[in-house]
Write a structure and sequence with these properties.
heterodimer, A: about 120 residues, seven-stranded mixed sheet, B: about 120 residues, mainly beta, six-stranded mixed sheet, five-stranded antiparallel sheet
């Protein structure tokens, strides 16, 4: 499987500001990456599919103007939470599909976002 | 609509005994099922997967069983160890005609293995 690096691991920001989260595939060229969100004690919810060189595909109910995704290279996808509000506070995780479904998808270590 | 369900929020097991984690699904288009282990504030770690055309896959202490007619799968851990204590997520893949499909996760089951 791939080695995935996600930064920052933790960020606190003020309401109204924007926060950028990076997901890097260190040893695997990823044309596709996935972004998930997890609320406390709940499941991981897929937010969007990041596609290298093209627009991201968002899941129903996810605001594309609020959660901007850029996948400019085969090793980097970014998620920017724009004009953050306290309800955006959550755990955000990226995933790189590598090795096929048999070996599973590799997840980043996640980013804990707290909006105050 | 919860397409993947883990109805047991928690499970407590004695060290050395078997842990059985259950998962149900509703979407017949799922072609692979995966189990992940997760610690707080970390990303999930892949454990084991099974294709929808199989009914069993084994890897060391971990075995996954799939009952396609019942749309049910289970993860068996034997013998259970205290280090297995974590949250376990069941996930299902819908390829949707693409090379890499989307994963749908269950709610997770907190496993606690007591020494």
């Amino acid at each position: 499987g791939a080695v995935v690096s996600q930064h920052p691991s933790r960020v606190i920001c003020k309401s109204g500001t924007s926060v950028k989260i990076e997901c890097r595939s260190l040893d695997f060229q990823a044309t596709t990456m996935f972004w998930y969100r997890q609320f406390p004690k709940q499941s991981l919810m897929l937010m969007a599919t990041s596609n290298e060189g093209s627009k991201a595909t968002y899941e129903q109910g996810v605001e594309k103007d609020k959660f901007l995704i850029n996948h400019a290279s085969l090793t980097l996808s970014t998620l920017t939470v724009t004009s953050a509000h306290p309800e955006d506070s959550s755990f955000y995780i990226c995933s790189v599909p590598s090795g096929g479904a048999i070996y599973g998808y590799t997840f980043g270590s996640g980013t804990r976002l707290t909006v105050v | 609509d919860q397409q993947v369900k883990q109805n047991s929020p928690s499970l407590s097991v004695q060290e050395g005994r078997i842990s059985i984690l259950n998962c149900d699904y509703t979407n017949s288009m799922f072609d692979y099922f995966l189990w992940y282990k997760k610690y707080p504030a970390e990303g999930p770690t892949f454990l084991i997967s099974i294709s929808s055309i199989k009914d069993k896959n084994e890897d060391g202490r971990f075995t996954v069983f799939l009952n396609k007619s019942a749309k049910h799968l289970s993860l068996h851990i034997v013998p259970s160890q205290p280090g297995d204590s974590a949250v376990y997520f069941c996930a299902a893949r819908d390829a949707g005609g693409t090379s890499y499909g989307k994963l749908t996760f269950g709610q997770g089951t907190i496993l606690t293995v007591h020494p």
